[in-house]
Design goal:
The complex is a heterodimer of chains A (about 325) and B (about 325). Chain A is of the alpha/beta class and about 325 residues long. Chain A has two domains: about 220 residues, 3-Layer(aba) Sandwich (Rossmann fold); about 40 residues, no CATH class. Chain A is built from twelve helices and twelve strands. In chain A, the strands form two sheets. An eight-stranded mixed sheet of chain A has the order 6-7-8-3-9-10-12-11, with helices on both faces. Chain A has a four-stranded antiparallel sheet with strand order 2-1-4-5. In chain A, strand 7, helix 7 and strand 8 form a beta-alpha-beta unit. In chain A, helix 3 packs parallel to helix 6. The longest helix of chain A has 18 residues. Chain A is globular. Chain B has two domains: about 220 residues, P-loop containing nucleotide triphosphate hydrolases (Rossmann fold); about 70 residues, no CATH class. In chain B, helix 4 crosses helix 5 and helix 5 packs across helix 6. Classes of the chains: A alpha/beta (about 325), B alpha/beta (about 325). At the A-B interface, helix 7, helix 8 and helix 10 of A face helix 6, helix 7, helix 8 and helix 10 of B. The complex binds adenosine-5'-triphosphate (ATP), adenosine-5'-diphosphate, iron/sulfur cluster (2 copies) and magnesium ion (2 copies).
Chain lengths: ~325, ~325
Amino acid sequence: MSDLLRVENLTTWLATESGIITAVDDVSFSVRPGRALALVGESGSGKSMTCSSIMRLLPASGHIAGGRVLFEGEDLLAKSPAEMEAIRGRKIGMIVQDPMTSLNPLFDVEDQVGEVFRYHLGDRSRRARRPKVLDVLSRVQIPAAEKRLGSYPHEFSGGMRQRVAIALNIACAPKLLIADEPTTALDVTVQQQILALLRDLQRETGMAIILVTHDLHTVQRFCDEVAIMYAGRIVEQGPVAEIFARPAHPYTEGLLRALPQLGGQEDRLPLIPGQPPSLASLPAGCRFAPRCRRATDLCRTEYPDWMATAGETRRSACWYADEVLG
Amino acid sequence: MSAFLSVRDLRKTFPVSRGLFGKPELLHAVAGVSFDVPAGTTFGLVGESGSGKTTIAKMVMAADEPTSGGIVIDGSDIATHGKAERFAFRRLLQPVLQDPYSALSPRMRVDRIIDEPLRIHRTYSSKAARAERVAYLLDAVGLPASAAQRYPNEMSGGQRQRVAIARALALEPRLLVLDEPVSALDVSIQAQILNLLRDLQDRLGLTFLLISHDLAVIGFMSTQVGVLYLGRFVEVGSKETILSDARHPYTLALIASAVPEADAAPVTGEIPSPLSPPSGCVFHTRCPVATDRCRQEVPSLRQLKPNHLVACHFAETTRKETRNA
Ligand SMILES: Nc1ncnc2c1ncn2[C@@H]1O[C@H](COP(=O)(O)OP(=O)(O)OP(=O)(O)O)[C@@H](O)[C@H]1O
Ligand SMILES: Nc1ncnc2c1ncn2[C@@H]1O[C@H](COP(=O)(O)OP(=O)(O)O)[C@@H](O)[C@H]1O
Ligand code: SF4
Ligand code: SF4
Ligand SMILES: [Mg+2]
Ligand SMILES: [Mg+2]
């Protein structure tokens, strides 16, 4: 199946107090229809900047310095601002950690969801929009939706607000939904509900999903492919089941081992020493080298090329990928 | 073994008024909680937002007054303490909170942050003795001596949490109250802090009251676990029992959310408002195996086997039924 989204060598600069940093550094990945790609990494590794670059919603200090973002074969980076407006919310939806970012506190639910139909589909009459609004609210499983039409965002719980934000973003049946830590702020049982909802919507509509998360359990449960970011770059990517079973990058390996396992009996967690580098002062060579127990002089001087491992579907940016794979 | 911390039928009720003229209603944030924490062990409190974890921690720290119930620390009932005693007692208990950033004032140098409690409690008379203590503490939490001259805003989240732990250890406490100590940190840094806490516990014989919404963290750290829902325990037992033989449908749902391959039925809905808790079993509105009886009759927290308490009418059969539901 052909790719719905193909990100090629995306590079994004940010002007910060400590100079210009490369927040997204030569990032490439693709997403196919109906599939879910996880973007994982520690905070500051560039996950959100990757998403905002794709959506062309960078802060004023940001600048896309290179690469292509091919969506249905067309480069989003070459689109005019008006063309992007028409794509956002219609062909590509995006939800973020804090649903209030998507919601307007001054409008009730009917008007917020209705606005999407008016803006993108030209539905002028409020009465004609109502059944569509009710339909999408019931698809995100808001109980007794007809009674909540007049409610304002602050009257909803966190989980319900995220459902409304999802409703806004799936109302026009987008081909791609970008979800940037959509459940991080929610309670664990509610997290499961929101993920199950996204899964159901995906099955129904065949939309592709990019799920940004730092929770490896969520990746394992929810996603088909995973791309692991470290200090602005993707260090490993491929099918979730294979990577979790046999990581080909020492960082992935370390993350998986550092995770406390329910029912594990160990006294100490095997950990990755040190901390991620600051993007303002990156080490030469492999960015993970200062924390990597396998690092050699080669690693400390030269950034590793992509090593194709275990066939065509997987890639690891590690000089010793084959050894890590074992 | 006698408990270092003992909590008996602890309750906290907040009067809250809706709107300007509304009559205040009572919010039962903690609705009768009892547990013991033997010296040198960890009691893990797990539950979702609003379940009362922080409220319990605050009462244990004497930062908030219980509405009723007793807290006994090292054999002494804290309700009977006068001002002087309370000040002295504060040395025994120290908090470590979720957000290391807000807990430390960003413009205070790290050595001042760590020796502030020493100055307040006048523990070390000379400046040199305090500096030595600071150096010892930095080393104990795995920070280089040079960290003393730095400021929190120049540090990463994990380093800041180490500073917060060093400060908490300054007065040689015996109990640390850890409220979500790693939930703001990345996985690789979480593991570092969790290992550090366990090392310190072994070396210094510390007792921990650990609060987390993450069952994997609770499982790694705890000796005994209490699962809170709407201000009350729905299940209490040893870590082993809770992780491998849990019986309450809510505990089973928490476990299912932490283990990818678990297949318990997901719970529906969200936590009800503590202002109007459901009748009967407080969990019935979300329970996948609730019956009519659950809507009417409050299940008592009953003993299923030694050191295993469950508040569910059907505790004997839930493991099978939630899977089929
Ligand atoms: N000072 C207060 N006045 C009124 N209600 C309060 C007060 N403090 C806490 N509550 C309420 O008491 C209940 C328990 O709150 P608590 O902060 O203990 O929860 P928690 O388990 O620590 O949650 P979280 O995981 O979000 O930290 C909540 O319903 C909360 O809104
Ligand atoms: N609005 C912003 N202005 C300036 N720098 C930012 C902004 N947002 C993020 N950054 C920086 O960009 C880098 C990548 O951040 P981000 O993409 O948000 O990471 P992640 O989502 O993986 O946590 C970090 O160094 C971060 O500090
Ligand atoms: S390239 Fe070298 S330093 Fe980098 S991850 Fe691989 S082994 Fe470690
Ligand atoms: S008492 Fe009933 S509602 Fe409560 S947990 Fe048990 S089965 Fe569920
Ligand atoms: Mg982010
Ligand atoms: Mg709390």
